[in-house]
Amino acid sequence: MQIDIRTDSVKPVRQTFANIARRLGADKPATRYQEAMYDLQPEANFHYRPLWQPEYELYDKRRTAVVMADWYALKDPRQFYYGTWVNTRARQQESMEKNLEFLEQRALLAALPEPTKELLATTLVVLRHTEWAANMNNAYVTAYGYGSAITEATMFHTMDRLALAQYLTRIGLLIGGKPAVAAARDAWLQDAAWQPVRHAVEDLMVCQDWFELFVAQNLVLDGLVYPLFYQKLDAQLALEHGPACALATDFMRVWHAETARWVDAVVKAAVQESPANAATISRFAFAWLDRFEPALAQVAQRLFGPDGGDVLAAVAAPLEKRLSGLGLSREGAAS
């Protein structure tokens, strides 16, 4: 008996779901990201208004001063949906685990001079507390933001921030065990150098406008903290003690570069929507920049000594240029 194996094709009845076809056209296949993102936001048939804010619906576009004709314009250029996000982070976690294992087996962080370990415990490891705040802030955006294009990305972001806090805790443990992590907590709560930052971060955590919170946390504060700690400090420590610290924070640098693409795309889309949005978001961004930059001054001085002010200015200047590139400008400044 002879068996002929042939391939055949079956023409699909439709290329995608109806809600996606209404956006893209009936005959155009959608990507997994588009299918997992478009039009998932509940818009009608809410039975009750929230008891704590009866002036709003449960999901309400008026919870921010930013106005969009289509909230799904705030797309993620990384096209993260659950599958791609999990796969990407799994690969990065595997690489980070190898780095930490390498450092632990050779005791590279534990072998640093005591003053350097104390400096890292009371500066770098303290960022575990700002990462927890970032987790809470992005959870707020996820809860009260509008449109699954932004809220599903911020949900992934909340988990990223928890991972970053955990990595910083592990770095603290590699530096000096539980006492180093406790020293970081004490520094966050009591060290005079950290109190302006803590005050600003706590004020940020009660910000009501979710888009302002997104801009302040993910664009402005991250735009200052990540270059300051994971570029400038890493470079200084590499000159003095080799690449051990840079190896421990490699994920932070890669993650921030990747995440900045998404943050910039969201802000740029909102700014281009209307001049009113551009003015509102500019007010958000520069008000928080003027709050966070002075707040970080004492921490920068702790890290870089007399050069702290210059290093912080060298971090703030590219951030201002980045804001300008997104179409943001200071009130009264020539655009």
UniProtKB/TrEMBL annotation:
Any Pfam family: Phenol_Hydrox
InterPro entries, per the entry: Ferritin-like_SF, MP_mOase_hydro, Phenol_Hydrox, RNR-like
GO molecular function: oxidoreductase activity, acting on paired donors, with incorporation or reduction of molecular oxygen, NAD(P)H as one donor, and incorporation of one atom of oxygen
Keywords per UniProt: Monooxygenase, Oxidoreductase
Coiled-coil segments: none
Highest taxon in the source lineage: Bacteria
CDD domains, alphabetized: AAMH_B
Protein name per its UniProtKB record: Aromatic/alkene monooxygenase hydroxylase subunit beta
Organism phylogeny: Bacteria, Pseudomonadati, Pseudomonadota, Betaproteobacteria, Burkholderiales
